[in-house]
Design goal:
The protein is an all-alpha fold. It is built from nine helices and no strands. It is globular and about 55 Å long. The chain starts with 7 loop residues before the first helix and ends with a helix.
Amino acid sequence: MNQKQTPLREQTRNVVRSLLARTAIELFASQGYDDTTLDEVAAAAGVSRRTLYNFFRNKEDLALSSLAEQGAQIAARFAERPADEDPWVSLRAAFQVLEEIEIRGEQRLEMVTLLFEHESLRAGHAEKQARWQDLLAPLIQPRLPFTDDRAFQARTIAAVAITCLQAANEEWVRQGGQIDLLEFYDQAVRAVRHSV
């Protein structure tokens, strides 16, 4: 079976975009979001400010860019799970992607804290995660019993899982990152699923 190859130019753009985002995250974590300029990000990545603007509209877009990539990775991981697996089990396995991100623990804590402390970043974070729902719902739907409201059920499961992940992230920050994020996610899911 022939798989469609990503053109080299697009691969290069993706690599540069990822490098810029990773550089920004490292600078935001070490210097603080407010104290980091786009010029500093461009200089640290070895590109011009103009090149940076070819990839990102502003600093907020740069700070939140990894969320879109994470959503795509989560959806891909979910799609790899067995088709007859319970959607909640598949979602839990897919969210494991977040634990595999290559960033030191203290930097991760600083970045997640940053996302929740800045109002505009928090809103942007919620918006990006809402897009995850659009990625996950069509993957969940075929796993549900066939009913007239199956699409609605799939969107609801995706929305609830993402909300549980959000609650887990907030608790993880409150606890100083000392406990595994997905343990909090499991607690949130249990609270929701057992209370119905």
